[in-house]
Inverse folding.
């Protein structure tokens, strides 16, 4: 199975998002590069609004993710509560 991935700018807001992704996807691999954080996982990766809100301590609109987004790989399913990257099997 191929890996899905997301790369975010390395800034204060992204660090909260990365922490939330790690919490919701314990098998994910986080790679820190200069100015960029890449998170990859086999087949599926979930970003859940409520987890990000818990870590940030404030309401978070999932559309705010796009302010820090550099690139992603995988099919995207997005609604008000989550963004899921996956490959069809």
């Amino acid at each position: 199975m191929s890996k899905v991935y997301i790369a975010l700018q390395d800034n204060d807001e992204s660090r909260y998002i990365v922490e939330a992704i790690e919490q919701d996807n314990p098998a994910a691999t986080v790679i820190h590069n200069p100015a960029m954080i890449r998170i990859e996982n086999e087949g599926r990766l979930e970003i859940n609004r409520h987890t990000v809100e818990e870590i940030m301590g404030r309401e978070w609109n999932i559309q705010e993710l796009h302010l820090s987004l550099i690139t992603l790989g995988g099919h995207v399913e997005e609604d008000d509560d989550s963004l899921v990257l996956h490959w069809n099997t």
Notes: The first strand starts at residue 3 and ends at 9. The chain has a mean pLDDT of 96.
